[in-house]
Amino acid sequence: MSTILERATRFSDRMTEIRRELHRYPEVAFKEYRTSKLIAKVLTETGIEVLPWGGETGVVGLLQGMPGPVVALRADIDALPLQEENEFAHRSQIDGMMHACGHDFHTAALLGAAMVLAEQKASLKGTVKFIFQPAEEINTGAKAMLENGVLQNPAVNVIFGLHNSPNIPTGQVGIKEGPLMAAVDSTFLTVTGTGGHGAIPHMTKDPIVAVAAMIQGLQTIVSRQVDPQDAAVISFGTIHGGNAYNVIPEIVELNGTVRTFEPALRAKMPSMMRTMLDGIAQATGTKAELIYTNHLPAVLNPSALSRWCRGPLSRLFGEENLVTPTPSMGGEDFSLFQEKVPGVFLWLGTGNTALDINRQWHNPRFDVDETALKYGAAALTQLTLDYMEEHPA
């Protein structure tokens, strides 16, 4: 009997064709109409039932075998509002939009897994739910699908997903217990002072000077209040205040993000930030108002399930090709699925320095090594079949 990798390799050309079609016509969050239509068409042609889930974009497929566990496999499908600078023939045909994070690759790999699994429907020891999720890039797609019961009817027992990694060579896979990607929170800071003439600052309460001190002070939370063995990021991406060079404004506004791995540290961050801001505001005679919003929890791979995954993955890739990746402070809404059911997220190697394919996510010249598609499809298939075999209902 052929191996899972050999079966997946038979669909390499089809997966490459799908990936390039998706790359040519990228669609951003909740606008993935053409993408969803193509996914549904391929699933239907493969003999997989397409289920309505309640959204206009995104697709859910169901492959029912014998009684057994329900395994969910998830891929994200949206692109970014970014102008592509690649010159290959399948570059984006849509101005200002690009698959610069490899979601086209994820989609094609999951469709490849669907093709391999559909061939084994008669002997499948359970059910597979294929989740093609919209709007990952704006952190709302998983939430929308979960609110519409995507993990129910039938109820999912476990979920697996993967993300391409330009830092890992093709033919290797990253598997890690515990934190893999960070929790994502946002901040909106308003600092109010007393405006006046720039030449008479002593008659004002300058919010610009206060904000300068606040930005510096908040960094000491990371360097002096957070355990050095933990990780945290406090960053501000926008700052707006004033309209004239010689006028001290009344208000300065900032938008930023906070990233953490540990749930306990994440819970403490708002109070630590407010204490720092209030102290500096009092010292400068200003008022600081912080709006702190939780968006996504961290991607935390359960220890026992992650250890179990090493078995199927080592049989597929070889133990020497299993790597422990360095966690990223980037976020991923796969974490919302993990809050509901046990789930493991992998980083699949797609880097190839010989082909100059190693640029990071969200770069206008981002690309993936398409020969890794067979590894992605095989990894999802191997995990599914082995889980069903070893975890009967």
Number of helical stretches of at least 4 residues: 10
Major sheet: order of its strands?
1-2-4-3-5-16-6-15
Contiguous runs where pLDDT drops below 50 for at least 5 residues: none
Radius of gyration: 24 Å
Inertia-based shape? elongated
Order of helices and strands: HHHEEEHEHEEEEEHEEEHEEHEHEH
Helix content: 25-40%
Assign the structural class, choosing from mainly alpha, mainly beta, alpha/beta, alpha+beta, or little secondary structure: alpha/beta
Give a description of the structure.
The chain has 393 residues and is of the alpha/beta class. The chain has an eight-stranded mixed sheet with strand order 1-2-4-3-5-16-6-15, with helices on both faces. It has a four-stranded antiparallel sheet with strand order 10-12-8-13, with helices on one face. The model has no long low-confidence stretch (mean pLDDT 97).
Topology of helices and strands:
Layout: H1 4-9, H2 12-24, H3 33-46, E1 49-51, E2 59-64, E3 70-76, H4 103-118, E4 127-133, H5 141-147, E5 158-169, E6 173-174, E7 178-181, E8 183-192, E9 196-197, H6 207-225, E10 232-241, E11 247-248, E12 251-260, H7 263-284, E13 287-296, E14 299-301, H8 303-317, E15 322-323, H9 334-338, E16 343-351, H10 373-390
Parallel strand pairs: 3-4, 3-5, 5-16, 6-15
Antiparallel strand pairs: 1-2, 2-4, 6-16, 7-14, 8-12, 8-13, 9-11, 10-12
Helix pairs in contact: 2-4, 3-4, 4-10, 6-7, 8-10
